[in-house]
Design goal:
There is one protein chain. By secondary structure, this protein is of the alpha/beta class. It has one domain: Nitrilase/N-carbamoyl-D-aminoacid amidohydrolase (4-Layer Sandwich), CATH 3.60.110. It contains 5 helices and 14 strands. The strands form 3 sheets. A 6-stranded mixed β-sheet has the order 5-4-3-2-1-14. It has a 6-stranded mixed β-sheet with strand order 6-7-10-11-12-13, covered by helices on one side. Strands 8-9 form a two-stranded antiparallel ribbon. The radius of gyration is 17 Å and the shape is globular.
Length: about 260
């Protein structure tokens, strides 16, 4: 089975300025020397993390969705990141998984950030989401989801793992950067999977600082990519399928995982 090349885009997001953010990411994508299998953008990549979505959230045929469609058709890459979406009179922090053929799937953020009152403005997602890319099974999640290990717990059934790679898109504040780094490592180790976490940098419109520290981490908790603090950065890395399979065979901790259900 083929390896998987991932590009992380750690950006400073212009507050509530879709045009500027989409232009920046478009320029970055166009400038990539080689095109990866997957490009990962931060949480609410078109606006920054807003909890007043009125006038900013867009429908599923809005400008950021059109931009994503154009990018995947132009590059042949799959692109993911979350947007503030309005649908049927409700708001969602919705991760979009846009494929090169223009088809897409979505995941609505399950754990809404209570301390920022996100739960008062946005509707909670109900369903877990695992998608396939090049034979890899991937579970994408959003920011605060990182603090809830049960929601992301991998499973092993009849020799098959639920997923091979976790992805977190985030607007994670600098004041809690230790938690971000620690939890990324923990989620990779406990689920015996690769993990890619993409965080923004710079202050938002409320003066909250973000320092990035986006990373790709392997199934043992080793950093394969560690983006710098407080700087915009683009990083690309190719995940080894054979390395993952060798580790799972040699250290079969999955056989001893507890089984449970989520209500």
């Amino acid at each position: 089975m083929q390896d998987l090349t991932i590009t992380l885009m750690q950006a400073s997001l212009a507050w509530k300025d879709k045009e500027q953010n989409l232009r920046k990411f478009g320029e970055w994508i166009a400038g990539l020397p080689t095109k990866p299998d997957l490009i990962v953008l931060p949480e609410m990549f078109s606006t920054g993390f807003v909890i007043e979505p009125a006038g900013l959230a867009e429908p599923m045929d809005g400008s950021a969705m059109e931009w994503l469609y154009l990018q995947v058709k132009t590059t042949g890459c799959t692109i993911t990141g979350s947007l503030a979406i309005t649908e049927n009179g409700r708001y969602y922090n919705r991760l979009i998984w846009m494929r090169p053929d223009g088809s897409y799937e979505t995941y609505d953020k399950r754990h809404l950030f209570r301390m920022g009152n996100e739960h008062e403005r946005f509707a909670q997602g109900k369903n877990q989401f695992i998608v396939e890319l090049g034979g890899w099974k991937i579970m994408p999640l959003v920011c605060y989801d990182l603090r809830f290990p049960v929601w992301s717990k991998n499973t092993l059934q009849d020799g098959s793992y639920a997923y091979d790679c976790l992805i977190y898109v985030a607007n994670w504040p600098a004041s809690r950067s230790l938690a971000f780094r620690s939890l990324l490592v923990a989620r990779a180790i406990e689920n015996q999977a690769y993990l890619a976490g993409v965080n923004r940098v710079g202050p938002d419109g409320n003066g909250v600082a973000h320092q990035g520290e986006s990373a790709i981490i392997d199934f043992k908790g080793n950093y394969l990519v560690q983006c710098p603090s407080d700087k915009e950065h683009i990083a690309t890395y190719t995940l080894s399928r054979q390395g993952l399979e060798d580790q799972r065979r040699q250290f079969a901790v999955g056989l001893d995982w507890d089984r449970f259900t989520i209500e």
